[in-house]
Specification:
The complex is a heterodimer. Chain A contains 19 helices and two strands. Chain A is mainly α. In chain A, helix 4 packs across helix 5 (93-102), helix 4 packs across helix 6 and helix 7 packs antiparallel against helix 18 (436-458). The chains are: A mainly alpha, B alpha/beta. Chains A and B meet through helix 3, helix 6, helix 13 and helix 18 of A and helix 2, helix 3, strand 7, helix 7 and helix 8 of B.
Chain lengths: 505, 337
C-alpha cells in the first residue's frame, strides 16, 4: 500500500507543468540523438548533464531519461530509409525495415516502429513499476554460465539470417566472430590481432562495421548503378502511408512479445538492446507462417525488434535503480547524473527518495505517449527523403555516416575502417553473401567467448557448469528446440493439416 | 600508500604546500615573467564522455571558470580509445604547448609497463596528484570468509579454492589485491581471476555467488554494502574510512602491505613547458584542491584527497611506478627487468 501511495505521488510530481515540459524536451532531444548515427544516447546525456546543473534533481533526471528512451524511437528512422542504423540496437531494422522501404512501404515501417516502440515502451514501464525489486534478484541469478547459454540461444538466430546458402551464411558469421576477437583480450589483458595499431586495442567498433557494411556499401552499389545507367526509378510509396489492416494484424503479436523479451533482456546487465532485438527477430521468424519473407520486408521483422529495443531501456533501469549498478554505457552516465544530484541509486533508493524515483518512472508513461505524438507526424516528412535524387542522397548518406562515426572517438582510423567495410559489404552483395550473420557474429562473439572462458575458469574446465542451474537448463532446452525447429516445424504442420483435410478426402 | 594523513591533517599540509606554491611562483617570476594562458585551454580526458573521469574533468573546468583561475576558455576533450593510449599519443604531439592538460589515471603507468605503448609519464610534465580511490574486497554477506585471514588461509590450502571477480586484469583494484595477497604469503599468479566487462556484472556476480570475492573501488561496493547485500573484508585505505565503513578494517590492520599500488588521478601538462608555465598550473590545481565542493565530492565517494606537486609528486610517481611494475610482474603482465 505504501508503494502504491508513492506511485500516485510520483504522478503528482511528473504531472507538474515544468516536469512535463522537461519530459518533452528530453524526448525531443532523444529523437534527434537517435536519428544521427554514431552520436548515441550516452554521449547525448553526457553533454547535457552540465547544463542541468542547478536544476531540480527530479526535473533533470526526467529530462535525461527522456533522452535515453527517446533515442530508441529515432534510431529506426535512418535504418528504414537509408539503411544506416541511427543507434546500435536498430541494426536488425536495417534488414526488413530497409527492404520494406524498397517495396514502397517505408511509411508503414516507420509507423509500426513508432507504435511498437510506444506499446513496448509502456509495457517496459509497467514492468519497471510492478516488478523492479523482484527482477533485481533475477539479474543476480545470471552468472557467466547463464550468460553463455543465453548468447548461445541468441546465436541460433543465425539460421534465420543465412538466406539461400548455408555455406555463405556460415562464412559471413565466422568472419564476424573473427572480427570480435580483435583487441585486448579481457581475461588475459593481452592484445590479439591488433597488428600494432593502437586504435585496434579496444577492438573493432560494432557501429563502424555496421555503418560501413549496410550504409556505405549501399552507396557504392547505387554509385555503380548510376554509372551503368541501371539505377531504378525513384521508389514511389505504394498504398497509404499508414499501416494496412493486414500489416497491423501481423504486427500486434511481435510488438507484445518484443516488449516482454526486451524488458527481460534489459534487466540483465551483460546483454543490452541489440541482443534483445536479435532475440525478438529470431522469435518472430520462428513463429512466422511465412519465414521466407524475412529479409525481404516482413513487417514482423521491424515490429518485433523495434519494440524489444524500447522495452529494453525500462528493463535496464532495474539494476541501475535497485542495485545502483549500471549495465551499459548509458545507464553508467545516468548513474553519474544521479550522484551529481546527491542521490545514490541502490537498494535504499526507493526508501530514501521515493518521490524522485517514482516521479521519474511515472514520467516515462507520458514520455512514451509524447514520443508517439512527436514521431507520427514526422513520418510524412521522413518518407520524402526517399524522393531526394540519388545524386544528392548518396553524398548525404556518406556525410551523415562519416560525421556520426567520427563523433564517437574523434578517430580517423574509424573512418578508414568504415570505408573498408563499405567495400567489403559491396563485395558481399556482389557475391550474394548475407551481411546479417557477420553482424550477429560481431555482436555475440565477444560475449559468447568471454562468458564461456569465465565459466570454464570457474568450473576448472568442467562443462557441467552449463547444466548447473535451472536457468541454464531452460536455455539449453530452448537452444536445442531452436536448432531442431526447421526439422520439427514441417511435421507439426503436417500433423495439424492431416485431421483438417481428412474428412474432405 | 606512503602517506598516513587524514583529512584534517591533509588540509593543513595542503595549506602549507599552497603557501610554498606561491613562493615557487614568485621565484619563477624572478627568472622570467609570470605566465598565464594565452588562448583556449584543453583538458584531455582519456575515456569517453559521461564516465567518471569525464565528470571530474568537467568539475575541474567548472572550478577554473567559477574561481577565474583561467581567464581564457576551457574545453574538455574526450580522446578515448586504444585503452587510453590514444589520448597519450594525441597529448604527446602537443608538446611543448602549455595550453593542454591531461586528466590521467594510473593507466598511464601500467600501459607503459605492459608494453602497450612506449609513452609514459616521463614524456609528460607532472603537475599534480589529486585524489585516490580506495579498493574494497567484498564477499557475499553469508560467506564463511569473515576476515582477510580467512581468505588467505583458504588460498594457502588451495589457490584455486576462491574465485575473484574484477573488471580489469592489471587494473588498480586487481593490483591492490595481488600485492595484498603477496604480502600475506600467497602467490597471486595462480589466482582464479574472472574478468567481467562491467562493474555491474562483477558485483552481481559476487551477490549471486557466481564468484566468491570481488576487488572493486569502495564506491562501486558501497550501496550494496550499506543495505547488507555485500560484506567488505578490508579496504586499502591507509586509515579507517568514516561513517558505516568505520567498522571495516584496513589492509594494513590485517597485516597486509598495499603501499605504492593505488588508484589515483593526476594532472599532467605536456613535456618541455617552462618553469613559469608549470608554476601557473600547479597553483591553479592547488586552488582546485582547496575548493569546498571539490572536497565534499571526494568525501561523498569515500575517496581521499592526496594533493602533491613538484619534487614530492615526482618521487611519489616514481614509487607508484615501481610498486605497480612489481605487482604486474607478479601476476605475469610484465617481464622482470
Amino acid at each position: 500500500m505504501e508503494t502504491l501511495a508513492h506511485i500516485v505521488n510520483g504522478f503528482s510530481i511528473c504531472l507538474q507543468p515544468i516536469n512535463l515540459w522537461y519530459t518533452l524536451v528530453g524526448c525531443f532531444l532523444g529523437t534527434l540523438v537517435g536519428v544521427l548515427p554514431g552520436i548515441g544516447p550516452a554521449a547525448g546525456i553526457a553533454l547535457l548533464v552540465p547544463v542541468t546543473y542547478g536544476m531540480n534533481p527530479a526535473s533533470a533526471l526526467i529530462m535525461l531519461a527522456g533522452i535515453y528512451y527517446g533515442a530508441k524511437y529515432g534510431g529506426s528512422t535512418t535504418s528504414i530509409l537509408i539503411r544506416t542504423p541511427g543507434e546500435t540496437a536498430s541494426v536488425m531494422t536495417c534488414i526488413d525495415g530497409y527492404a520494406m522501404a524498397q517495396n514502397g512501404r517505408a511509411g508503414a515501417a516507420l509507423a509500426v516502429s513508432a507504435i511498437g516502440s510506444f506499446i513496448a515502451g509502456s509495457i517496459g514501464v509497467v514492468g519497471l513499476t510492478l516488478f523492479a525489486l523482484p527482477l533485481a534478484e533475477m539479474a543476480i541469478e545470471f552468472g557467466p554460465a547463464e550468460y553463455f547459454m543465453l548468447m548461445l540461444f541468441a546465436m541460433t538466430s543465425v539460421a534465420s539470417l543465412t538466406g539461400k546458402s548455408l555455406a555463405k551464411g556460415m562464412f559471413s558469421m565466422v568472419l564476424g566472430l573473427m572480427l570480435a576477437t580483435v583487441g585486448i583480450d579481457l581475461q588475459s589483458a593481452m592484445p590479439r590481432y591488433t597488428m600494432d595499431i593502437v586504435e585496434f586495442q579496444e577492438g573493432i567498433s560494432f557501429v563502424v562495421v555496421v555503418v560501413g557494411m549496410f550504409a556505405v556499401s549501399e552507396v557504392f552499389q547505387g554509385l555503380e548503378m548510376l554509372l551503368r545507367g541501371t539505377a531504378p526509378a525513384v521508389i514511389r510509396i505504394s498504398g497509404k502511408l499508414w499501416l494496412t489492416r493486414e500489416e497491423w494484424r501481423r504486427s500486434i503479436g511481435p510488438i507484445w512479445r518484443g516488449g516482454i523479451i526486451g524488458f527481460i533482456i534489459g534487466v540483465l546487465p551483460g546483454a543490452g538492446g541489440t541482443i534483445a532485438s536479435i532475440l525478438s527477430y529470431t522469435t518472430e521468424r520462428g513463429l512466422s507462417k511465412h519465414p521466407e519473407q524475412f529479409g525481404r520486408g516482413a513487417i514482423e521483422g521491424v515490429a518485433g525488434p523495434e519494440s524489444a529495443n524500447n522495452a529494453d531501456t525500462a528493463g535496464a533501469l532495474v539494476p541501475l535503480l535497485t542495485l545502483g549498478l549500471p549495465g551499459g554505457a548509458v545507464t553508467a552516465v545516468l548513474l553519474g547524473a544521479f550522484i551529481m544530484y546527491g542521490i545514490q541509486p541502490g537498494p535504499l533508493l526507493f526508501k530514501e527518495h521515493p518521490d524522485i524515483v517514482w516521479g521519474l518512472i511515472d514520467s516515462m508513461y507520458f514520455g512514451n505517449a509524447m514520443l508517439l505524438i512527436l514521431n507520427l507526424p514526422l513520418i510524412g516528412l521522413f518518407v520524402r527523403l526517399l524522393y531526394i535524387p540519388r545524386g544528392i542522397l548518396y553524398p548525404l548518406i556518406v556525410a551523415i555516416s562519416a560525421v556520426g562515426i567520427y563523433s564517437i572517438n574523434g578517430n580517423i582510423v574509424d573512418l578508414y575502417l568504415m570505408i573498408l567495410f563499405g567495400v567489403v559489404g559491396y563485395l558481399f552483395n556482389k557475391a550474394d553473401i548475407p551481411i546479417a550473420p557477420l553482424v550477429l557474429g560481431l555482436v555475440l562473439g565477444d560475449l559468447i567467448e568471454q562468458s564461456f572462458r569465465q565459466a570454464m575458469n570457474l568450473s576448472d574446465g568442467s562443462l557441467g557448469i552449463f547444466v548447473g542451474s535451472r536457468i541454464t537448463v531452460v536455455l539449453l532446452v530452448l537452444t536445442v528446440i531452436a536448432v531442431l525447429w526447421p526439422l520439427i516445424a514441417p511435421r507439426i504442420k503436417a500433423l495439424k493439416t492431416l485431421p483438417a483435410t481428412g474428412p474432405e478426402d | 600508500m606512503t602517506f598516513k594523513l587524514g583529512f584534517r591533517e591533509l588540509s593543513s599540509v595542503v595549506a602549507a604546500i599552497g603557501a610554498l606554491g606561491t613562493w615557487g611562483h614568485a621565484v619563477a617570476a624572478e627568472g622570467e615573467a609570470a605566465w598565464q594562458p594565452q588562448g583556449p585551454v584543453e583538458i584531455v580526458v582519456p575515456t569517453g564522455a559521461g564516465g567518471e573521469n569525464d565528470r571530474v574533468a568537467r568539475f575541474i573546468q567548472r572550478i577554473f571558470e567559477q574561481k577565474k583561475l583561467v581567464e581564457t576558455p576551457v574545453l574538455v576533450v574526450n580522446k578515448s580509445g586504444g585503452g587510453q593510449v590514444l589520448s597519450l599519443v594525441y597529448f604527446a604531439k602537443k608538446s611543448p604547448d602549455p595550453h593542454f592538460l591531461l586528466y590521467a589515471t594510473g593507466t598511464v603507468l601500467s600501459n607503459q609497463i605492459s608494453g602497450r605503448t612506449e609513452l609514459g609519464y616521463h614524456d609528460l610534465t607532472p603537475i599534480a596528484k589529486l585524489r585516490c580511490d580506495n579498493t574494497a574486497l567484498t564477499v557475499a554477506p553469508d560467506s564463511d570468509m569473515k576476515t582477510m585471514q580467512d581468505l588467505i588461509g583458504r588460498l594457502k590450502g588451495n589457490i584455486r579454492s576462491v574465485s575473484f571477480g574484477g573488471v580489469s586484469r592489471g587494473g588498480a583494484n586487481n593490483l591492490v589485491l595481488a600485492k595484498a595477497l603477496r604480502s600475506g604469503g600467497v602467490d597471486p599468479s595462480g589466482l582464479k581471476m574472472i574478468i567481467f566487462k562491467t562493474n555491474a556484472q562483477s558485483m552481481t556476480g559476487v551477490m549471486g555467488k557466481h564468484v566468491d570475492a570481488v576487488a572493486s573501488s569502495v564506491s562501486a561496493a558501497f550501496q550494496n554494502f550499506k543495505s547488507g547485500k555485500l560484506r567488505i573484508l578490508a579496504v586499502s585505505a591507509p586509515k579507517r574510512l568514516t561513517g558505516i565503513l568505520a567498522d571495516v578494517p584496513t589492509m594494513a590492520e590485517a597485516g597486509l602491505d598495499v603501499s605504492g599500488v593505488s588508484n589515483c588521478r593526476y594532472i599532467y601538462a605536456t613535456k618541455g613547458i617552462t618553469a613559469a608555465q608549470r608554476a601557473f598550473w600547479e597553483n591553479a590545481m592547488a586552488a582546485v584542491n582547496n575548493d569546498e565542493e571539490w572536497g565534499a565530492d571526494i568525501a561523498q565517494r569515500n575517496q581521499m584527497q592526496d594533493f602533491r606537486r613538484g619534487k614530492d609528486l615526482e618521487s611519489d610517481l616514481k614509487a607508484t611506478y615501481d610498486a605497480t611494475r612489481a605487482a604486474m610482474v607478479d601476476i605475469g603482465l610484465a617481464k622482470a627487468k
